[in-house]
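#struct-pred

JT: dropping the chains for the assembly here, can someone run the whole complex?
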Amino acid sequence: MAKETIAGLAKRLGISKASVSYALNGQSGVSDLTRRRVLDLAEELDWYPSSSARALSRSRAGAVGMVLSADPALIGTEPYHMGLLAGIEAALAESDTALMLRMVGNDPAQEHAVYERWAGERKVDGVLVFDHLLDDPRPALLDRLGLPFVLHGTPETGAPPAFSGTTTDHDVDAATIIDHLHDAGHRRIGHVSGPHRLLHEKERIRGVRERAASHGMEVVQYEANYALQAGHDAAVTLLRPSETPGAPMTAMVFGNDLMAMGGLLALRELGLRCPDDVAIISWDDSLHCRLAFPAVTALSRNPGMQGRVAAELLLDLLDTGTIRTTSMPPGELVVRASTATV
Amino acid sequence: MAKETIAGLAKRLGISKASVSYALNGQSGVSDLTRRRVLDLAEELDWYPSSSARALSRSRAGAVGMVLSADPALIGTEPYHMGLLAGIEAALAESDTALMLRMVGNDPAQEHAVYERWAGERKVDGVLVFDHLLDDPRPALLDRLGLPFVLHGTPETGAPPAFSGTTTDHDVDAATIIDHLHDAGHRRIGHVSGPHRLLHEKERIRGVRERAASHGMEVVQYEANYALQAGHDAAVTLLRPSETPGAPMTAMVFGNDLMAMGGLLALRELGLRCPDDVAIISWDDSLHCRLAFPAVTALSRNPGMQGRVAAELLLDLLDTGTIRTTSMPPGELVVRASTATV
DNA sequence: CTGAAAGCGCTTACAG
DNA sequence: CTGAAAGCGCTTACAG
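RK: done, full complex below.
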């Protein structure tokens, strides 16, 4: 059986290609009867219009892109990004939009190169971008390329947004975490963040510092990179007695689940008990936190929902050109054994 | 700046579109000088040929598809599939082939519908398919749709293969696991497998049974579904004294890492110690196994490499039409505390 | 080695 | 409401 085309259907039905096209796309210009006959025949033949022909004539790829940049060895260990991906995919599937996925290393140049390529080839109609950086070059790059985008995790400014994105109130999340530790009696804590070039880490750090100060708590900041090993090393460094003159540190906040796991391993090595000697809390929840021993208290941020919202912003931008910003609900603290009061 | 096209480049250079096309695609039919001028101009303008125009005229989408079917709630918790995905993506990127990703629930009909759609729209040139089922309907479906595919994890038959795929010798893997447990002194063990409708589980079960028999060991089989809870329930069931008349079961083999984690949780609830009372071993390695307490002995199968090989088989099939089968190297046992001899 | 032309399979003004 | 025709931006025989 040769591949059917719209011309073939038209011939079979004795009508023009235009009528078939109008009927398929739900546009006016065909009688109800004709439309029915077209749809019935397409159904019967299991026929769908060619996506590339459609893309070419519509100047629309029908796909959006997402590049996941991470250490290749770590890919798949980051539950937060996988949750995002699942949410994004679900929203896109509902709108018949395909998802083009690329994974690159941590080098920003690779990510930029993918955008240039996609824009040049008109392979995708828009992209989803993650983790707003300080002086992030990507918005300007994407504007220059004419590639619509949504930036997941962008700062809330008073002004009307320059591009679409999702925002999170990190002060609220920081308060949730710090208040919980304060209530449990902690007065001197460590905060192991992700890289400071990430805007949201800057905001979290400020939120933690200010909330802690309001309680009269002391915070030691430590910059790390979200890897398990980094969390481990941070804990070893911060908990070495020589590093903490004065009162001992009794709790540690980790910027993600993997670092929290690393911190937990470090405690074991150091012969410290959790939560008795040091309590641990993670800024991301995941199965790792649930399965750890002791299970780790974590801020649950619902990545699936966040991905869905980001995807919907992008679809809306592509359909209507509307630039807007949606704020994410605050995270919910899942209290587990790692911060139990003794 | 209006979007450049191949006609624009031709005009600027005072040559025909055909020459530009030949030059870009590395085909003969242009002088070296002309080719250079074309490539230089494209580079200077940051210009790439339109993927949809190319797809239409070549009748090739330049993309392959992959549908991940899993419980939406579990997506992202399955490290094995994420590792596969990373390996696949790496191989495809090297061949300038895009990856179209879809996630659907566990209902096979949804997966089939995606294939029908992709084939009808000629949206992808081929697909990667996972987990060969008993009486798997997918090979016949894909053949009917004319959609080339590679089936990752297909049985090794003596005959020339009917389709491309990767094979694994589950007998060897089973022997690795069983020998390890035998060496550690276990004589009566539980084997918690994934669903029996998966061909590779059938093969693993047979492999375990036969190897254990050769050592005079006793095996109790239990069918589960790869979820954490299922592993938990399996352990509770198998370790309840009433279930194991006679000698107690001293070790359990779990079909994946999540079930092994569930098993570990169950042991804690039952007041049993690991490895002292019951040893645990997982057929997949992952960060979960490494972080568990005690850390769980696991068979490492290198999913990234497997994904890469599967993708290369598909690319080869698309380029040359070669149907072939590659066998995966046996897994390597990573021995950890969960099977330490006391 | 180069150019003019047809073709890939749709969509969409434009006449009727 | 319907049909003939141009156009989307490439690729590829076919002449020269």
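JT: nice. The longest helix of chain A spans residues 303-320. Chain A touches chain B through 50 residues (CB under 8 Å).
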